[in-house]
Amino acid sequence: MAATTAQMPVSLIKKVDDGRIRLTQELRDRLFRPLPQDAVMSWVWTIAITVLGGVLRFAFLTRPRADDKLQIFDEVYYVHDSWTLLHNGYELNTTNDGPGFIVHPPVGKWCIAMGEALFGENPFGWRVAAAQWPARWRSCC
């Protein structure tokens, strides 16, 4: 059962001369525990979780497949827009004879275009850019 502020001993908090409240060493020891000393195992676990997350994220990245004529949500628009950005430098409409309907800034489309440039215009190519960022951030947290 957690202690409420009414039950907390007054001796854990002290006031200094200038009126500020300071924590006693006992309370600091309870609140701010030292980091684990086993740095190697913490890195092993971090890398293992990152690899597992990456494997799970990339395992079925190509499904639904392009030959099923299925695209997920905004892929209908962003795949074509990123392709036209890659090849023309600006968005074109679906018939490639006029300007495209620009709704969002092009950063995400450029990321998708980089995936298409590296892996081709296929489901893996246009989904890899969106899938790799969570795998990278997992290792940072």
Question: How would you characterize this protein structure?
Answer:
This protein has 141 residues and is mainly alpha-helical. Helices cover 51% and strands 4% of the residues. It contains five helices and two strands. A two-stranded antiparallel ribbon has the order 1-2. α3 packs across α4 and α4 crosses α5. It is elongated and about 75 Å long. The model has no long low-confidence stretch (mean pLDDT 78).
What is the strand and helix layout of this fold?
Elements: E1 13-15, E2 21-23, H1 25-31, H2 39-58, H3 75-88, H4 107-119, H5 123-140
Antiparallel strand pairs: 1-2
Helix pairs in contact: 2-5, 3-4, 4-5
How many whole angstroms does the radius of gyration measure?
Answer: 26 Å
Strand percent estimate:
under 5%
What composes the largest sheet? 2 strands, antiparallel
Helical/strand content category: mainly alpha
The strand order across the widest sheet is 1-2
Summarize the structure.
Helices cover 51% and strands 4% of the residues. It is mainly α and 141 residues long.
Essential attributes:
single chain, about 140 residues, mainly alpha, two-stranded antiparallel sheet, 5 helices, 2 strands, about 5% strand, elongated
